[in-house]
Design goal:
Blueprint (H helix, E strand, L loop, with lengths): L2 H8 L16 E2 L4 H13 L6 E7 L1 E2 L11 E2 L5 H17 L7 E9 L7 H12 L3 E12 L6 H9 L2 E9 L3 H6 L6 H14 L3 E8 L6 H11 L6 E6 L21 H17 L3 E4 L2 E3 L4 H8 L3 E3 L2 E3 L6 E4 L4 E3 L3 E5 L3 H9 L5 E6 L2 H16 L1 E3 L5 H17 L3 E4 L2 E4 L7 H6 L3 H6 L4 H4 L5
Parallel strand pairs: 2-5, 2-14, 3-4, 5-6, 6-7, 7-8, 8-9
Antiparallel strand pairs: 1-17, 9-11, 10-11, 12-13, 15-16, 16-17, 18-20, 19-20
């Protein structure tokens, strides 16, 4: 079966597996006491030497990118910065009071929205306040998302001085026609300028986000985009499929669906982009991510330390994640919780000295077992089947795996499942074989819950 035929066969709605169970299967939390107890228990049990991760959601953007499915707030009023940082720090102090000892911060990621919407001084105040009563791990990894149009030298200097060494820029596509359609005008000169500035400031890893499947994209346009960005040598590239979910994201209703590339053209755009990246020396990490062989993301995949959580792939094994800010998600290793998605509700609860969580999930033994399989496949490309929950493996997982093996996506040798080079393009599909929620609940709403796999 050709790669085009495989993509046609397996291009159906599938989770991205930044968690297991995935968010659509979570439930409302009745009050926050059960969550705070789970948080305290998880913090006490976590490996202090490994440290904890912080994800901080900064939701503001000055303009609306119409393709975007992130939780954001559009405003040009920068006076919102102070109020939001005050709420973040209040939330942090509430969690800090639950910790019986100073936390060791191993990882910070500033996501959005547009983190560089915030002034350098306010970012400095935020990070300084978070770290003043904590211990920074000597091998920490701090990363930030920046917009090529508004990331200044002052931003880069302040972030570098605060310990940040990784930065990600949303590039998406360099074609002016596509940029106008998605309302994100940023000349390649801006991307080049900010990349050079980040490296001068001392950043050691630069990532670009690229998207295929956007309105008006063509094969010729994709080739131009790759030919423009590859010489800039970003250390990592996230090459995402555009998720068209207009029933969730109203801004996507501004697209005429006739302007989107059809399934066959979208497949060709993906295959062209992937081929150009691999020809240029980038390695396919899986789940849309590529990295140069010198980058820590590739090295961690090679040495077995790659991890995956709500920040995507990470090079550190720190499974305890605290999310701060509107819509942010926390993961203790055994329990998940998500904050309110509406800014008004987030402010209301935090300012009332209440935790802002509104839904979550507490895992059982079966969840933990299948979560490990999924993480193994996503991060290492292999897993070992255990005898625990054998009946579920026999009834659901093994039949799925055997079908995938017949198509050349994986190999089963004894109790080892190993992803093939071809299968690396279908990691989400292979992970789904271990997704008991998906199998057992047979959700007829999958098409409206998840984006397509390619």
């Amino acid at each position: 079966m050709s790669i085009e035929q495989l993509i046609e066969k397996y291009n159906y709605p599938t989770p991205r597996y930044t968690s297991y169970p995935t968010v659509p299967y979570w439930y409302d939390l009745e009050g926050t006491r059960v969550w705070t107890e789970a948080f305290k228990k998880g913090f006490q049990a976590h490996n202090r030497q490994a440290g904890i991760s912080l994800y901080i959601h900064l939701p503001f953007c000055e303009s609306l990118c119409t393709y975007c499915a992130c939780n954001k707030k559009i405003t040009s009023n920068h006076s919102v910065e102070e109020e939001y940082i005050d709420a973040l720090l209040k939330e942090w102090n509430m969690y800090f009071s639950l910790m019986e000892e100073k936390p060791v911060i191993r990882e910070i990621h500033l996501g959005g929205g547009t983190p560089t919407f915030f002034s350098p001084a306010n970012l400095q105040r935020l990070i300084g306040s978070l770290l003043k009563d904590a211990i920074v791990h000597p091998q920490h990894a701090f990363s930030v998302e920046g917009h090529p149009n508004n990331t200044t030298n002052e931003h880069l200097s302040v972030l570098y001085q605060s310990g940040f060494r990784r930065i990600s820029f949303g590039v998406q596509d360099i074609d002016p026609v596509v940029q106008r359609a998605i309302n994100r005008i940023q000349p390649i000169e801006n991307v080049s300028r900010v990349t050079e500035a980040a490296r001068r400031a001392g950043f050691t890893s630069v990532n670009y986000d690229l998207i295929y499947g956007l309105p008006f994209q063509t094969l010729a346009g994709e080739e131009k985009t790759m030919n423009a960005i590859i010489p800039l040598q970003p250390d990592r590239i996230a090459f995402y499929s555009y998720a068209h979910v207009p029933w969730k994201m109203k801004a996507q209703r501004l697209f005429d669906e006739n302007d989107l590339p059809d399934a066959k053209l979208k497949t060709k755009i993906y295959l062209l982009g992937r081929q150009m990246l691999t020809n240029a020396g980038y390695h396919d990490i899986g789940m849309d991510h590529f990295a140069l062989p010198s980058d820590e993301l590739y090295l961690s995949m090679q040495n077995g330390s790659l991890h995956r959580n709500f920040m995507g792939y990470t090079t550190l094994q720190s499974p305890f994640l605290l999310g701060l800010g509107v819509s942010a998600i926390s993961d203790t290793g055994a329990a998940y919780a998500q904050n309110h998605r509406e800014l008004e509700n987030y402010y209301r609860t935090v300012n009332a000295s209440e935790f802002a969580v509104f839904k979550g999930y507490f895992t059982d033994e079966a969840d933990q077992a299948f979560k490990k399989y999924i993480l193994d496949i996503a991060c290492q490309g292999r897993t070992l089947l255990q005898s625990q929950f054998q009946s579920l493996l026999d009834e659901y997982t093994l039949p799925s795996l055997k079908g995938l093996e017949e198509d050349g996506l994986l190999m089963i040798q004894g109790n080892e499942v190993k992803v093939t080079p071809t299968g690396r393009q279908f990691i989400r599909i292979i992970c789904q074989a271990f997704d008991m929620k998906f199998h057992l609940e047979k959700s007829s709403q999958a098409a409206t819950m998840f984006s397509k796999s390619i």
